[in-house]
What we know:
Layout: H1 2-40, H2 76-119, H3 127-138, H4 155-160, H5 165-174, H6 210-214, H7 222-228, E1 232-235, E2 238-243, E3 246-249, E4 266-267, H8 275-289, H9 302-314, H10 325-330
Antiparallel strand pairs: 1-2, 2-3, 3-4
Helix pairs in contact: 5-8
Amino acid sequence: MKKVIAILISCSLALAASAFAQQDEQQQKPKKQRAQTERSQPENAARPAPQPRQAPPRQHVETKAPSHEQGAPQSSESKSKSHMTKAPQKERVNANANKEQTEQREKENNAAAESETANKPPGPAPANEREKNEREQAGGAPGPQANKPNVQGNKLNAKVNKPDPQTVQRIKTQHESFRAQAKPDKIPAATFNQNYRISGAEHWQGQQYQVFRSYHPQWHDRNWYHSHYNRVELIGGGYYYWNNGYWFPAWGYDSSAQYYAYDAPIYVGSHAEPPDRVIADVQASLQEMGYYQGEVDGLLGPLTREALTAYQSDHGLYTTAVIDEPTLSSLGMS
């Protein structure tokens, strides 16, 4: 009987020793796997933070194994769960490493592209911009309107290149003895119409424009004009009378000499300078600024009125298309 008991005790001790050996082997296996995983990762890959160990779930008293069975080998189901827990962690580590490598490559590519763009010479401008620049450099769009003043293209230059006092004095000196000549073949003469009114004058506010708002042509003989005005002169093919800073067409004074390029008052100031001389001064000044491209002839023809309109529009004046007090003052010639 004692021998049987001794044999049982020996078997139990052998089984316990075998269980402990297997448990040690199972504990060493995860460590080897982690070491292999770390060696397989890139050197610049970020190492994951160590995962906190979770306490093993508590077992019920009824299912707790005897002390000599705690060292028994793990079942296949436990091994499978352990492998499934470690696999996602490895995948996350590899994904993070690949993401960082991709971001690094993108940064390097962007830096290379920026460097190439900075060192690359500028290419040709778009076709529409080239055409615009060519038109501006040429002073206007070529074609059927080549003989027409390029008012739109010269606005900016006009504001910058406004004549200085020295230029104005030079222009005035140049035209001291200027005399205009009638040109009915180039600039058709205006015709008398007692119902004529200057278009848009009713909207021009201020005392300086009152004479334009109230103007209407009058037909009188020379005796009437001499009895009402002190100064009546033949200027540029027609007679004009002077009144309070303005020259007016003297319709009816002489039926053989009543050529007027434009039927409107012309402001010259208190010195009563001849209107053709003042018109020539204004034409030359507008020509200096690029508004007027016609001939300096001392006549208020269509090209001169168009240039006046553009200049007045650019400088915040009423577009009267004629020489008025604000326009002459803006040109420095009043």
